[in-house]
Structure formats: structure tokens, C-alpha cells
């Protein structure tokens, strides 16, 4: 649906402002339902204890434990990486002290986001990179030194608008952009992981 896709693109461009508003509201109103859920969530507490930046780290861990996705020495690009919890998981999995050489040195993790990403040890973090821009591909190729990619990951998702069909369309739009990167940067047989919200376009 062209109308929905047009609105989806508009929503993608406003994500940074929406996230800033959410953070401001959380500080100003500690009784906010979102803040209360965060305080009660066991994975939020676990992430804090294990020094992960947010609970989504455990989603990636669970996928890897079930499917054995990542192998020593691989090259991985992560789209929409802020605040960096998936990047932390990848860095510990592929560049941690338990990984033998030369695989540890060969592994390369490049993470980017439109927002600022605080540095993650053993990963290349690119801030203020817009996945919709031509410069995105150029920046990634420079960081990768033209090395072919084994995995492209995307946990990108919009802030929910309350309109299910629109939210799903925005999510599909983001996934399509990440998939295009995978097709351009990936080696033959490379893998792709993304988040989709259920909607008409995901069932088409």
C-alpha cells in the first residue's frame, strides 16, 4: 500500500525524536507504566548485572544458542545497533578471550545507527549513519575494508503508533533496507536476521 509506505518512511525519519521524548518522560515521571515495567523486568535487572546495555541482548543469545548462528572468524554488520547490546553479545562471542587465534583477530563486527552509539570494545561502531542514505553503504565498505559479510543483523523497529498496519509497514520498510545491505555486502550463502511485526505485509 503506497499510502502506508509513505507514512512509514515519514515515521522512520522521526524515530530519534520519539526516543528522546520517551527518555525525557521517564526521567520526569518515574511512575510512568513503561518505567514501572522496566524496573520489574527480570531481564532488565539481569542485563544491568551482566553489564549489557539493554535486555535485547538475551534475544540474540537465545537465537544463537538454539541455531548456532555465529562462527569464529566471521564478519558481521549490525543495523540500528544503538544502544549496543547486540554488539556487546557479538563482541563477547567472537572476540572474547575464550576464542582462539587466529579466529579472534579475524572476526570483524561493524555496528551502525542513526543515533549515537557509545564505543563497544572489539567492535567498530558508526554513529549518525542513516540506512536510507547512499553514504551508509560507503561508510560500511570503508569500515569493512571491502571484506565480504557473513551476517547482517537488524533489530530495528519503530516506536509503536497504535495503528497496527502502519507499524507493521514501518518495520517491513526497515527490514527491506537491511536486506538490501545484505545483498550488496554479503558473501554467497551469507545470513540475515531481522525483526518483523505481524501485519498484512508480513503475511502477503
From TrEMBL:
Name the InterPro entries for this protein. Answer: RNA_methyltr_RlmE (IPR050082), RNA_MeTrfase_FtsJ_dom (IPR002877), rRNA-MeTfrase_E (IPR015507), SAM-dependent_MTases_sf (IPR029063)
Coiled-coil parts of chain: none
Pfam families attached to this UniProt entry: FtsJ (PF01728)
Record bears the keyword S-adenosyl-L-methionine: yes
Protein's UniProt keywords contain S-adenosyl-L-methionine: yes
Tell me the Gene3D superfamilies matching this sequence: Vaccinia Virus protein VP39
The region annotated as signal peptide is: none
MF annotations from Gene Ontology: rRNA (uridine-2'-O-)-methyltransferase activity
Keyword field: Methyltransferase, rRNA processing, S-adenosyl-L-methionine, Transferase
Q: Can you tell me which family this protein belongs to?
A: Belongs to the class I-like SAM-binding methyltransferase superfamily. RNA methyltransferase RlmE family.
Identify this protein by name: rRNA methyltransferase 2, mitochondrial
Source organism: Macrostomum lignano
Amino acid at each position: 500500500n503506497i499510502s502506508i509506505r509513505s507514512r512509514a518512511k515519514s515515521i522512520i525519519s522521526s524515530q530519534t525524536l520519539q526516543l528522546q521524548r520517551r527518555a525525557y518522560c521517564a526521567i520526569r515521571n518515574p511512575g510512568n507504566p513503561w518505567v514501572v515495567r522496566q524496573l520489574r523486568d527480570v531481564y532488565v535487572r539481569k542485563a544491568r548485572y551482566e553489564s549489557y546495555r539493554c535486555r535485547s541482548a538475551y534475544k540474540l543469545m537465545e537465537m544463537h544458542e538454539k541455531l548456532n548462528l555465529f562462527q569464529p572468524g566471521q564478519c558481521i554488520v549490525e543495523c540500528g545497533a544503538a544502544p549496543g547490546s547486540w554488539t556487546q553479545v557479538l563482541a563477547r562471542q567472537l572476540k572474547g578471550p575464550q576464542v582462539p587465534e587466529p579466529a579472534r583477530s579475524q572476526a570483524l563486527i561493524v555496528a551502525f545507527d542513526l543515533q549515537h552509539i557509545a564505543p563497544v570494545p572489539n567492535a567498530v561502531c558508526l554513529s549518525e549513519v542513516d540506512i536510507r542514505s547512499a553514504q551508509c553503504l560507503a561508510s560500511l565498505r570503508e569500515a569493512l575494508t571491502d571484506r565480504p559479510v557473513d551476517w547482517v543483523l537488524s533489530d530495528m523497529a519503530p516506536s509503536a503508533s497504535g495503528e497496527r498496519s502502519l507499524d507493521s509497514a514501518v518495520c517491513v520498510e526497515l527490514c527491506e533496507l537491511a536486506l538490501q545491505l545484505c545483498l550488496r555486502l554479503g558473501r554467497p550463502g551469507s545470513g540475515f536476521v531481522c525483526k518483523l511485526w505481524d501485519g498484512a505485509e508480513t503475511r502477503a
